[in-house]
Amino acid sequence: QVQVVESGGGLVQTGGSLRLSCVVSGGTFIGYTSGWFRQAPGKEREFVASINWSGHSTYYGDSVKGRFTISRDNAKNTVSLQMNSLKPDDTAVYYCALTWRTNNPQRVTDFASWGQGTQVTVSS
Q1: Distance in angstroms (rounded) separating the CA atoms of residues 32 and 68
Q2: Most exposed of 41, 54, 73, 92 (fewest Cβ within 10 Å)?
Q3: Contact 49/62 with Cβ under 8 angstroms?
């Protein structure tokens, strides 16, 4: 029933910025934690960032800490990922996912509802 749609991906040069958005629809959903994951070809899906429902708690993967910022606007059913100082290693398909777990979920298996992903490519 939950529908998750990412947008905002594209091609950017090293050092540039992109802002990804994740819109949730299909019903009235509240109380969930949102996460961003990414997956490059031949690599496992990895945790990027998460934010709980209230926005009070945010977590970041070590590789993006200090460069990416996650935020949410529950009135618009939207979670965003601001990505700055992008590097070629950030190139991947970025996925938005939801979970009602409340124990700082960061594993792929913690999240039940996923979007289709949006491609981010950082050129050198």
Answers
A1: 21
A2: 41
A3: no
Tell me the C-alpha distance between 106 and 53, whole Å: 15
- The tokens for 73 are 């606007």
Task: Write out pLDDT tens, residues 38-95.
Answer: 999 999 999 999 999 999 999 999 999 999 999 999 999 999 999 999 999 999 999 9
Encoded amino acid at 83, one letter: M
Residue 60 near residue 116 (C-beta atoms within 8 A): no
